[in-house]
Amino acid sequence: EIVLTQSPDTLPLSPGERATVSCGASQNLTRGSLAWFQQKSGQAPRLVLFDVSTRATGVTDRFGGSGSGTDFTLTISRVEPEDFAVYFCHQYDALPYTFGQGTKLEIK
Amino acid sequence: HLEESGGGLTSPGGSLRLSCAAPGSTLTDAAMIWVRQAPGKGLEWVGRIASKTDGGSTDYSAPVKGRFSVSRDDLDHKLFLQMDSLKTEDTAIYYCALDLSQDIRLWYLRPLGYWGRGTLVTVSS
Question: H/E element holding A68?
Fold first, then answer.
């Protein structure tokens, strides 16, 4: 099983600042099958990025993704109030699929 | 986009069958997954079913293997999760979603990020 470890667990930022969330995989994701989800309180997860850096429909270009192998990054160029949420990385490179533990982006 | 149903309260050792309705024929023959989220916890992948074109095979996470079963009815555009021998640790919101690992002919679905709103399963005595 591929274990995904996110850092940090909590990221306190002010609106307008840059957010960087890391996701480390215990094994190489040979197909680059890594996605990011956003989840707000009481809501279902929402797909933000897939295949490392491809934005989902309707996602602003303030969201970007990068990485390969075992190290991946979600970047929000300028955090807006609606971006404060929990973010999960997800690998669908190999079964069993797995998720990271989540990173809470909170208002500083 | 997707709508789960069938959740509720059951006792340990009991069974529940969750359904997931897909819109029209959009997701017919797409690989689909079930994901759950225990109260206050993160996301956990539960199982997957491949498209019938790709053989309709199923895979499960270790905690549910042998107890849960995923199936599909493409004529009725529905996905199912049969849950038997339920344990208190199966208490969670259960989501159905499009598997992001799709055959290239269905890659156009992936940006749409199909997820349901979830259905709550509570296992308690």
Answer: strand A63-76
